[in-house]
Design goal:
The protein has 269 residues and is of the alpha/beta class. It has two domains: 98 residues, Translation Initiation Factor IF3, CATH 3.30.110; 132 residues, C8orf32 fold. The chain is built from ten helices and ten strands. The strands form three sheets. The protein has a five-stranded mixed sheet. It starts with a helix and ends in a 10-residue tail after the last helix.
Length: 269
């Protein structure tokens, strides 16, 4: 009896630790160096921007791995490695934020010899089947606001999620926001971003200290939106806010967030 109780306690501790990891980071990054002999197929591109496009296509297709080569790729990714690939993920996120947001794990392997190449392996929060459902729902919601102003579209996406979702720390996958109306902050933020992606409105996924929200571009400036906190308060207290009045939401200190033209004050319609 004592042994079984300790085993049960062990699994509870493991569950709590895993829950903390899910809340405290977007994905884990494992990096290693390897020899070229382990590579089968390599996609050869012209440079870094084309490599980023290939990786974005891999993420959109929900594929597990890819090896890419161009002159200077080893140098570029050793540079990215210095800050645990934060700048690399930021560059991907700027145009493909939803897809980088659903990465649950990533391994980056830099080739040590022969032709320069880097291999990537990805794990995802969602399944291919779940992504198909998410896509269908996001398109349906976006269609309701076709032809309306960008403000109305952003507000429509915000209101849909706030009206149909309840906070539930058992669900950290955006699929459950669309399917069951349940999720944690990252689920809310990713679902919001997925709808805006269908609306073709620039939006980035932001991960702070154990909380996630979004930045949205409107009239040339970027505003903060936190659907999770608005839902909990039943208000628009965190909708299209500027840096001066978006309390409790400090953007990560990374190259991408420093270059965004962030609004100082809340959007005045």
């Amino acid at each position: 009896m004592f042994f079984r109780m300790n085993i049960r306690g062990f699994y509870i501790v493991i569950f709590v630790l895993l829950s903390y990891l899910v809340l405290s980071q977007d994905c884990y990054v494992y990096s290693k160096e390897y020899d070229e002999s382990s590579i089968d197929d390599i996609i050869i591109v012209e440079g870094r921007q084309e490599a980023l496009k290939v990786i974005a296509d891999i993420l959109k297709a929900h594929k597990g791995d890819v090896t890419i080569s161009y002159s200077g790729i080893s140098r570029d990714f050793r540079h990215y490695k210095k800050n645990n690939y934060t700048d690399f993920l930021d560059e991907l996120s700027f145009k493909n934020g939803y897809y980088t947001g659903i990465i649950s794990g990533m391994c980056i392997s830099i080739n040590n010899s022969g032709n320069e190449s880097v291999s990537f392996q990805f794990n995802y929060l969602t399944t291919v089947k779940q992504e198909k459902y998410i896509s269908k729902q996001a398109k349906k919601i976006a269609k309701k606001y076709k032809g309306q102003s960008r403000y109305n579209k952003i507000k429509g996406a915000h209101d849909y999620i706030a009206d149909h979702t309840s906070y539930d720390n058992r669900h950290y996958n955006p699929y459950y926001v669309f399917r069951k109306g349940r999720g944690i902050c990252m689920s809310y933020a990713l679902a919001f971003q997925r709808i805006l992606m269908e609306m073709k409105i620039p939006c980035v996924y932001v991960k702070g200290d154990n909380h996630a929200w979004n930045m949205v571009k409107l009239d040339g400036k970027w505003y903060g939106v936190d659907v999770t906190w608005d839902d909990s308060r039943g208000s628009y207290a965190y909708f299209l806010k500027g840096t001066e009045d978006f309390y409790g939401h400090d953007c990560p200190d990374s190259k991408m967030f420093r270059t965004l033209k962030k609004a100082k004050y809340s959007y005045n319609r």
